[in-house]
Amino acid sequence: MIGYLRGKIIEVLNDSALIDVQGVGYEVFASSKTLEDFMTLLGKDIIVWIHTHVREDALTLFGFHAKDEKNLFLSLLKVNGVGPKMALSILSGGRPAQIQEMIEAGNAKALSGLPKVGKKTAEQIILTLKGKLVTIDEETKVKSESLTQITSALLNLGYKSQLVDQFVSSLPLNITVEEGVRKGFQTLSGNL
Fold first, then answer.
1. How many CB atoms lie within 10 A of CB 191?
2. Mind listing the pLDDT tens digit for each residue in 154-167?
3. Which residues of the chain have pLDDT under 50?
4. How far is residue 177 from each of residues 144, 152, 189, measured CA to CA in Å?
5. N or C end: fewer C-beta atoms under 10 angstroms in the chain?
6. In sequence order, what E strands does the chain have?
7. What DSSP state is assigned to residue 136?
C-alpha cells in the first residue's frame, strides 16, 4: 500500500489533485480543505499522506496534507454506513480538531450540519467513535487554538468569513496570534 507521496502538485480539480512523482502522475482525491491547501502549493514539492482504497473494480488514492486529517478519515471509515467519499465530505466541513470536538462532545446537531451527514449518521458516528479517537496532542491543540484566535480576531475586525478561512488555512501552524493577526490585516485590508 502507498503510505505517502512526495512530489509536485501539478493540477487541482474539484475533488482531486494531480501529483507528479518523478514523472508519474497520481490522481489523489482529497477534502476541500486539503485541496485549498494544495492550490497554494501548486508546482511546489510536498508530502501528501495517502490512504489506498482497493475495491474489486477500482484502486483509489485519498490524500491528506496533515496526518491528523488522515487519522480522522481512517476512524470515520470504521463507522457503519460511512465510506471514503462520505468521510471526505465530512472532512470538508471543518478542521479535524473541530470535528473531533463535536464527536467527543456528543454534538449530533453540529455533526449533522456537516456535508452529507444526516441525524442518524451523526448519531452513528458519535456512538462508534466517542471516546475512541486518538486524542490530539497538546502541541497540536495549542496550535489549533492560536489559529482559532487569529480567525476570531479577523472576523471581529469585519473581514468576510470565507476570506478569513482561506487566509488562516495558509498560515504555518507555529505562527503566533499577534503575527497571524498582523499578516491577516496586511493581506485582507482591501477586502472589508
1. 12
2. 888 888 877 887 78
3. 136-139
4. 11, 10, 17
5. N
6. 4-12, 16-21, 24-29, 45-54, 59-64
7. P
Paired with 54 in beta bridges are: 59
Integer-rounded Cα radius of gyration of the chain: 17
- Residues 111-130 have pLDDT tens digits of 888 888 888 888 888 888 88
**Inter-residue contact 165 to 92 (CB < 8 Å):** no
DSSP summary character for residue 189: T
pTM of the shown model? 0.65
Predicted local distance difference test score (pLDDT) of residue 134: 59
Beta bridge partners of residue 77, listed in sequence order: none
Measured CA angle at 64 (ends 58, 66), to 5 deg = 160
C-alpha cell at 64: 491528506
Q: What one-letter code names the amino acid at 31?
A: S
Cell of 162: 470565507
* C-alpha grid cell, residue 186: 496586511
Query: Read out DSSP for 38-67?
Result: HHHTBTSEEEEEEEEEE-SS-EEEEEESSH
What cell does 89 get? 465530505
